[in-house]
Design brief:
Strand order of the largest sheet: 1-7-6-5-4-2-3
Shape: globular
Radius of gyration: 24 Å
CATH architecture of the largest domain: 3-Layer(aba) Sandwich
Number of strands: 11
Bound molecules: pyridoxal-5'-phosphate
Number of domains: 3
Number of helices: 14
Distance between the termini: 58 Å
Strand content: 5-15%
Structural class: alpha/beta
Order of helices and strands: HHHHHEHHEHEHEHEEEHHEEHEEH
CATH topology of the largest domain: Aspartate Aminotransferase, domain 2
């Protein structure tokens, strides 16, 4: 393995070059096309028999991969809810790779303690009670999976069943949700309950918010012994918040597990004027949030808060003699999906330390003001129409009078300007364009650039 030894001997120079390349990439983010044209692809090559070393692999990266990367970390990538990466979190992520800690169990490293502290800082950030315990996951989908699995375990225990041990046989479980994120259905598919386990609760008119009167009668009528309610704190298109106070009351009456998906909506708690939207969330059994979205740490990093660590432990516990490590701290492999786990807590820990609660509060407020400015421009324009009032960080619109196919064409044209990247959405059954602000680098100047890009495509150019 002479090549490995040579690379190790040259590591300092390689690391310096990679750091330099990375800072240049960051600096150029605002100038490169937001969505990469991926037409060129990769050259077809067989697996190398003898590799050429790290320097040559880096050269191949810069030649073939770098030019085809998107500016998803940059200020005008408004697709999905993508978030950026703060300087402190990027540095931390390099350190994660360099130190390569496995945060499966405590005993050999401080890494578990870092994750515990990061989780408790997140509770402070969101002003959630310390009765919740936190674990970092690979993303909100993984957190929703944990939510579905814990809820399932709880529903089983109400029927004297240990589902994690003996399976679902004989259990009766019904799930209620109004506008669950698609990943929640995936979570119930993983859980063995199935995507069809969800009974859809109607929404309030012209909204994605759950009609709690409907939930009340549906819970009353349900014959299932185990009940689960999935509520939304920020739906993906309308950014609607379910009435968590009322829902938690109903859950208490019907002994239902309450899981709240607040992947990005939980960050509304950082703004005093919006905090009441999530009133009652402290009564939930479990909560999902994403760190790789509005916390602006690199992928992949989600957050799962749970009030019942015992249930989480029953669900995820790994019983194997070689894993029997004596320690007072929890082993995160017993609380999450993976056994071996990335040290993803470090970017969260370092970024929270670097920017504090005020820094994040300003970031969220700034992004919401930018979304509002774009929404206002769209409302005033003759060519576009706003479909939903902009309440948080998402703008939902379409070219005036356009429908499904035309909306798709317009979105393609908008993205092909290279100035902005947006993604599709559905509002009340009709095609829409979604722009979500969640990056620390975005400024009002960027909003102007986006408006100019939209302005450059009017009338026939648009559809
Ligand atoms: C409300 C909500 N839940 C869950 C998810 C899934 O998140 P992830 O892509 O991190 O798995 C998203 C992603 O957009 C979301 O908006």
């Amino acid at each position: 393995m002479a090549q490995l030894e040579e690379d190790a001997a040259n590591f300092e120079g390689l690391a310096r070059d990679v750091a330099q390349w990375s800072s240049q990439f960051q600096a150029e983010l605002k100038n490169r096309p937001v969505a990469a044209s991926t037409g060129r692809g990769l050259p077809k090559r067989m697996l190398a028999l003898n590799g050429n070393g790290a320097r040559s692999a880096f050269d191949d990266f810069t030649a073939h991969i770098a030019p085809q990367l998107s500016a998803s970390a940059g200020p005008r990538y408004l697709g999905f809810v993508t978030g950026g990466a703060t300087p402190a979190s990027i540095m931390a992520d390099w350190l994660v790779a360099a130190t390569d800690q496995n945060v499966a169990a405590p005993g050999d490293s401080i890494a578990t303690e870092v994750e515990l502290q990061a989780a408790s800082w997140l509770l402070e950030l969101f002003e959630l009670p310390s009765s919740f315990e936190g674990i970092l996951t690979s993303g909100a989908t993984a957190s929703n999976v944990l939510g579905a699995l814990c809820a399932r375990q709880h529903a089983g225990s109400q029927q004297n069943l240990d589902i994690a041990k003996a399976g679902l046989s004989g259990s009766e479980i019904e799930v209620f949700a109004a506008t669950p994120h698609a990943s929640m259905q995936k979570a119930f598919s993983f859980s063995g309950l199935g995507r069809d386990a969800i009974t859809f609760v109607p929404c309030l008119p012209n909204s994605e918010k759950m009609d709690t009167n409907a939930l009340k009668s549906m819970l009353k009528q349900s014959k299932s012994k185990g009940k689960i309610v999935v509520a939304s704190a920020g739906t993906v298109t309308g950014t609607d918040f379910d009435d968590l106070r009322e829902i938690s009351k109903l859950c208490k009456i019907h002994k239902a597990w309450l899981h709240v998906d607040g992947a990005f909506g939980l960050f509304a708690r950082l703004m005093p004027s919006c905090k009441h939207w999530t009133e009652g969330i402290e009564l939930a059994d479990s909560i999902t949030a994403d760190a790789h979205k509005w916390l602006n740490v690199p992928y992949d990093c989600g957050i799962f808060f749970c009030k019942h660590p015992k249930i989480l432990q029953q669900t995820c516990s790994v019983a194997a003699p070689y894993l029997d490590i004596d320690n007072t701290l929890p082993a995160f492999m017993d609380r999450g999906i993976e056994n071996s786990r990335r040290f993803r807590a470090l970017p969260v820990w370092m970024s929270l330390l670097a920017y504090g609660k005020n820094g994040y509060q300003q970031l969220v407020e700034k992004n919401c003001a930018q979304a509002l400015a774009l929404a206002k421009w769209i409302s005033d324009s003759n060519d576009y129409e706003l479909l939903v009032e902009c309440k948080l960080n998402v703008v939902v619109f379409r070219p005036v009078g356009s429908r499904d196919k035309e909306v798709k064409i317009a979105l393609k044209k908008i993205n092909s300007t290279g100035k902005v990247y947006m993604t599709p959405g559905i509002w009340q059954g009709e095609a829409a364009i979604r722009a979500a602000f969640s990056n620390w680098q975005t400024s009002m100047k960027d909003v102007k650039i986006v408006c100019n890009a939209l302005k450059s495509l009017t009338g026939k150019d648009l559809v």
